[in-house]
Amino acid sequence: MSRRGSAVLAADPAAGSAPRSAPGDTGRRRDADRRQLPAFVWVLPPVLVLAAVFLYPLALVVQQSFSPDSGGTSLQPYTDVFASGAFREALGTTVWLAVGATVGCLVLGFVLALVIAFVPFPGGKAVAKFIDVFLSFPSFLITLALLFVYGTVGMANGVWTDVTGAHSGPFQFLTTPWGVLLAEITYFTPFVMRPLLAAFSQLDTAQLEVASSLGARPARIVRRVILPEALPALAAGGSLVLVMCLNEFGIVLFTGAKGVTTLPMLVYSKAILESDYPAACVVAVVNIAISVGLYGLYRVVSRRVGA
Amino acid sequence: MLVHSRGGRWATWTVFFALFLPVFALPLLVIVAASFATNWSGAFPSGFTTGHYGAATTGDSLQALTTSLVTALTASVLALTVGAWAALAAAALKKGGRRFMDALFVLPVAVPSVVVGLAVLVAFSKPPVLLNGTRWIVILAHTVLVMAFAYQSVSAAILRLDPMYEQAAASLGARPLLVLWRVKLPLLLPSLTAAAGLCFALSMGELSATMMLYPPDWTPLPVQIFAITDRGSLFTGAAVAVVLMATTLLVLLGVSRIRTKASFR
Prior knowledge:
Oligomer: heterodimer
Number of domains of chain A: 1
Strand content of chain A: under 5%
Distance between the termini of chain A: 19 Å
Number of domains of chain B: 2
Number of strands of chain A: 0
CATH topology of the largest domain in chain B: MetI-like fold
Radius of gyration of chain A: 25 Å
CATH class of chain A: Mainly Alpha
Helix content of chain B: over 70%
Structural class of chain B: mainly alpha
Shape of chain B: globular
């Protein structure tokens, strides 16, 4: 998982690439027959593979979303799903959880990256490395850990009952949306920190020294010098996290909360638990539309800022 | 340096660790601690035992580990082959074509993995290709999901490649395939192994699409962890989770060693 952020960020093609075989050199090396094949021929095999294993299945999902169990082709599945309270609730929960987690990740990630970059301490490198490792673990481990920390018999409630002698602790939020929110903020904050740390490492520290020697206090330097520099990285990291939160499944599944249903969870329960494939496909199409749209926005933002 | 006073620096660091440790270090430590415990109803776990690791490395869990390893290895090799091929071929295209390939091959990242699982399930549960109920449907979904990351890391590496080497080789009369095999691929080897490690780690932890697809006789580790914790055996689940993390880390470590060896050539 680790380099999800950086891999995505790094993928933006910079202008200029290796000059290839020029069209005019045909006579020079007549024996190099392979060279005569146009470049797009070499692209075809992987594209065909992708089409067979990804695009064709996706098209079938869209097709199935228009095919109710009663047969024929109609918008019936859509009207049914849109009319159901479960879908509206899931849509609302998904959006507010994703937005909330993104805001939380941005704030927390900005503060942490700020300290690592500008108030350096021994071991800061190790912390940055730890974050890389953190990203290579699956998300549901966070929920599993939170069960031991804030669960009904976990650490926090255990301490509370020991200290106060009460029967049960006050921390009962894990199976509510707040538990999912906490887990998502924990897991996705590193995805904001990585682009931020990259952006901070390019910032000329002389600017900070000048501002500071002119009498600006740290809060003012952060607001007037660092924040404007960090905005592109924040935008790129934030939109990536927003998309990943919208699509998060493991955290919600492990929370095991009946009250928290997000769109991916609804796809799973409609398809696997209820075997209602047309409805699952409708939810899937809505989910694809939201996240592909946002992901496109993210690509545009991160390309524009060159992050 | 943003904060100049000594006291201010210490205060900043205190705030940093007050945020960092509970949020990032605690979860991993807690899982490791819980995997050695029989009970956790106070500040610290109690009842030290290594028994959970016995359960985590035998029977179903051992089978889940090998399942995960085989799945991740197969999916990484397949995804890397297709992804690297696509990235190399896309680099030869003009700008518009490259943009198109970039958009096409990152699409699996943007589509929710649950939906990828659903799509694969819908498509391969009926003729012409019937894979539902076999291990191949899981491996196929993993391949689709990690292919995008393989493509992205390889194409980013190609952009950083110095074109002088291949031009020199070509000017000496090497055919394109020879240039690819003897010049470009060796130069790309560090990025290829890094991409392989990334794909492997992602596939090891994949849960969303797998939950939609796995047949009863092909249960990868994340699904096994979910099944165990869902039964209420949280501590055994923690031990299996530690096995998952340790395996992933070991493989990443091995891959990074290959990388440093290759870069010293």
